[in-house]
Design a protein that fits this description.
Strand order of the largest sheet: 8-7-6-9-10-11-12
Strand content: 15-25%
Number of helices: 11
Shape: elongated
Radius of gyration: 21 Å
Number of strands: 12
Helix content: 25-40%
Order of helices and strands: EHEHEHEEHHHEHEEHEHEHEEH
């Protein structure tokens, strides 16, 4: 099996991991010309979503042997614009990014719960804000957190929340058991879950069913003072409705790493909302272990492909509306 590698960094780690799989030959494609040449004889493509543009889609469409596309990223958003050829299997690397994204999500939530934004604002003014912040202080301990999306990232978030003794409600398309979820609910039961949630962490992909999922009506179901963190996709939350709920005090705060438009426009009102933390879509970045995990996920799927076994991280492309 020949695998073309089109990744922005860590190509050496991928080459080493794939060469250790009998029957696999990796080929690094550093630019679009090299990619077109590699795909002329490649059985598979490993690519970062940020590099999957029109030129990549054209090269994929012309590849005569391609049967598998592996996204080194968690998301496969480019397939919303560039549908893969029929009979091409798509996999992703959500499991590799999950620990760091989970860390970021829980950090955002903990910062909101412990009033860190207010403390920073007071610090800049050299103001001792004990009396101001004390009534707003909360704790993750004994709080109820609803996780919207319970794939690899949602499960890692739940694991970290349990370390804080939070009560975790996992919300997914199907009900199942998991040691780090205290309760499970289906998406159809969201109207019963949101009124009970002290906080919501959204880890939803962008699909026709999830776009605008947390709209004004659903945000209104949250109890007064509830918190929202989004580390999934920006278009799953109605940003105008969220801004309104924060500004009128119905919600206690929010932490966003993803947005409807990225980069977030300079004139967006989100920049100036006091109880909103903005981070620029970097939740998965920073771990020294990341590249090794990404290479290992790719190599595991390559090993499965060579042996004719099911892929470990398949993506339902039909659900994307591609």
């Amino acid at each position: 099996m020949r695998i073309a590698l089109h990744v922005p960094y860590g190509a050496e780690a991928f080459v080493d991991a794939l060469r250790a799989v009998p029957g696999v030959a990796p080929v690094v494609a550093g630019d679009k010309d090299a990619l077109r040449a590699a795909l002329a004889s490649a059985d598979a493509l490993a690519v970062m979503a940020s590099l999957y543009d029109q030129a990549t889609a054209d090269a994929v469409a012309a590849a005569p042997k391609l049967g598998w596309i592996h996204f080194v990223s968690s998301g496969v958003d480019p397939l919303l614009r560039f549908a893969p050829p029929a009979n091409v299997v798509v996999t992703n690397s959500a499991a590799a990014w999950a620990p760091t994204v989970a860390e970021h999500a829980v950090t955002l939530l903990a910062a909101l719960v412990r009033q860190i934004p207010g403390a920073f604002a007071a610090q800049r003014e050299r103001r001792w804000a004990n009396a101001e912040l004390r009534p707003r202080m909360c704790s993750l301990e004994a709080s109820t957190v609803a996780l919207l999306g319970f794939g690899a990232i949602g499960q890692q978030i739940a694991r970290r929340l349990k370390a804080f003794d939070a009560h975790v409600i996992a919300v997914a398309r199907t009900r199942r058991n998991h040691p780090d979820a205290d309760e499970f609910a289906t998406v159809d039961e969201i109207a019963q879950v949101l009124p009970r949630a002290d906080a919501v962490i959204a880890v939803l992909p962008s699909t026709p069913e999830t776009r605008g999922f947390l709209d004004a009506a659903r945000l209104a179901l949250l109890p007064p003072g509830a918190l929202l963190v989004n580390v999934g996709r920006g278009d799953t939350v109605d940003q105008a409705a969220l801004a309104a709920a924060l500004l009128d005090g119905r919600l206690g705060g929010a932490g966003l790493d993803v947005f409807e438009r990225e980069p977030l426009p300079a004139d967006s009102p989100l920049w100036t909302i006091d109880n909103l933390i903005v981070t620029p879509h970097l939740a998965g970045i920073g771990s020294r272990a990341l590249t090794g995990r990404l290479a290992a996920v790719c190599a595991d799927n390559a090993r499965r492909a060579v042996k004719g076994r099911p892929f470990a991280t398949p993506v339902d492309v039909s659900a994307l509306g591609a």
